[in-house]
Predict the 3D structure of the following.
Amino acid sequence: MTVADELEPATPENEATEAEEPIKQRKNGLYPGVSDELAENMKSGWADTELHDLRPIAQAAETAARRAALSARFPGDRLVIPSGNLKTRSNDTEYPFRASVEYAYLTGNQTEDGVLVLEPRGEGHEATLYLLPRSDRENGEFWLSGQGELWVGRRHSLTEAEKLYGIPVSDVRELADKLREATGPVRVVRGHDAGIEAALTDKVTAERDEELRVFLSEARLVKDAFEIGELQKAVDSTVRGFEDVVRVLDKAEATSERYIEGTFFLRARVEGNDVGYGSICAAGPHATTLHWVRNDGPVRSGDLLLLDAGVETHTYYTADVTRTLPINGRFSEIQRKIYDAVYDAQEAGIAAVQPGGKYRDFHDAAQRVLAERLVAWGLVEGPVERVLELGLQRRWTLHGTGHMLGMDVHDCAAARVETYVDGTLEPGMVLTVEPGLYFQADDLTVPEEYRGIGVRIEDDILVTEDGNRNLSAALPRRSDEVELWMASLKGAVQS
């Protein structure tokens, strides 16, 4: 990469004062400074690039409705929802920025340092989106700051942003002072912007702020039509990513699990924003490690590959799909036995996803099937009711059978237990159903032939008015169908 060696990169601490203070020079920059002549030259001769034909973002109506619901829940309170700041990866490089889910859900904006503020007005609120304006050309920020537009790219003007997001927009660099002077009750979403929190330190309480966070988490339990469409897009791209992987398994065998990770990542970056979480590309005994993301192991014919991966769309909605595949295209007898047990458990779990049913039903149904198989195989002493009551199956099933899905892979995590795990399923909810069996390589309580085999099958399920719809049904699940699918892809040209 090009080193911005004549400047010191902007940070959240110095960004706000750049308009008033000279931009600092990098300690070991190759240029000792900027001449007056060069500084003057860089101020002029630039074309007007203001965009005048912008249309609102696709979800503008939905984000407005979400803000209205938030306003109704907290009348009279000032509500502050930051997007977050850049985080340093090493020295002067940052991690790719991802706006806070709460902020993106309410605005559709994804830029760093943004803040949504809902000011109480009469019976409701007046929303203002606070963003960084275009880089300043008078003081040289646009070419001298590490976050100037000549280094990281153009950002929208405040006027452009108003057209895109349908919200009045102001300069975020003025916000901290406004918040310090604010009176009346305030709530802020914590953990994303230390500067904004510092400006509100004497005006907020942890309890009130947690109520805001919980509400915004529970608001996402039921997806609107736009969200369901985005989730289907994410799943469709994920299906293509899985197909990509199957086509290159021979190359993965010649290298490592990293080839699988890179292959799927290419699809995610071409068709979406990113992967929704670190891809689990677990071959052989690595499949028994639930969150194997090192992806540095060998890929061997005769072993299974557990691939748990999801594409994230440009609007932050992620798929979360798992398939366990025989690397050579054919399950061995013991692999098929374990796989089919997990498939049967998943079938029972999916069938239990119904509107009006308890959220826990799909987990209980899947766990019962797995407990029955473990007893039948002689791996744990029955009866099945005893096994389930004591949770003895968990030695090999390990995790819950699913979770809510959306803008976070484990969506709505701050929701109250009574509305989530102990809640009732409603049309529009989207959740994963993902039972698994994992026999560790060093587990002496099972026959040797079981050891080192891990199987998980995961699909993304939409609760509908009359049942459910498997958003990821395009990927085969039954063991014989998986084999036929893999055979059909071998040697196929990547689309």
In short: The chain has a mean pLDDT of 94. The radius of gyration is 26 Å. DSSP finds 18 helices and 17 strands in the chain. The first strand starts at residue 78 and ends at 82.
